[in-house]
UniProtKB/TrEMBL annotation:
Gene name of this polypeptide: rimI
Domain named N-acetyltransferase: residues: 15-160
Protein name from the UniProt record: Putative ribosomal-protein-alanine acetyltransferase
An example molecular function term from Gene Ontology annotations: protein-N-terminal-alanine acetyltransferase activity
NCBIfam families, alphabetized: rimI
Keyword Signal: no
InterPro entries: AcTrfase_RimI/Ard1, Acyl_CoA_acyltransferase, GNAT_dom, MshD_Acetyltransferase
Entries under Pfam families matching the protein: Acetyltransf_1
Keywords associated with the record: Transferase
Record flagged with keyword Nucleotide-binding: no
Length: 160
């Protein structure tokens, strides 16, 4: 049992987080397609990285493999998480916690005072993670997700 726990903590400590670049898009697409029933397409990531001055994206890598990513927008003092995923075969290893924490620290360093995101009402694991970082529910976006029209919970936190 101790061996399994040690192995899981290894992933968190050895995962490297860095800014995403265009060469990362194929690896990010593998995470995206494995994680979502309505994945973004390649063009969206290209536009975010090349055309959106408000966008900042980061990847989590393990042994050169992209195992997760997070996208953010920063507009003045407001931050938004646009998309966030950890590859299903790497979940439960605290990598999402490390990546999310990295993004929050980055945004706070850029002067972000308020952060918000949307999360599926059925995604209890993600909601639990966000609560660890102080996010609280602030409202519901009815039929937000286009794949099944599931509602989204809007969660937010003051970073100031």
């Amino acid at each position: 049992m101790a061996k399994a726990a040690k192995g899981k903590s290894r992933f968190m400590s050895e995962a490297i987080i860095r800014q995403m670049n265009l060469e990362d898009v194929p690896g990010v697409m593998k995470v995206e397609e494995a994680s979502f029933s309505g994945p973004w397409d390649v063009e969206i990531f290209h536009k975010e990285l090349c055309e959106n001055d408000h966008a900042y994206y980061f990847v989590a890598c393990l042994d050169e493999r992209i195992i997760g990513y997070i996208g953010t927008w920063i507009v003045f003092e407001d931050g938004q998480i646009t998309n966030f995923a950890i590859h299903p075969d790497m979940r439960g290893r605290k990598i999402g916690e490390k990546l999310f924490g990295y993004a929050l620290t980055f945004m706070a360093g850029k002067g972000v005072e308020r952060l918000s995101l949307e999360v599926r009402i059925s995604n209890m694991a993600a909601q639990s993670l966000y609560r660890k970082f102080g996010l609280v529910p602030g409202g519901i976006r009815k039929h937000y997700y286009t794949d099944n029209f599931e509602d989204a919970i809007v969660m937010w936190v003051n970073l100031k």
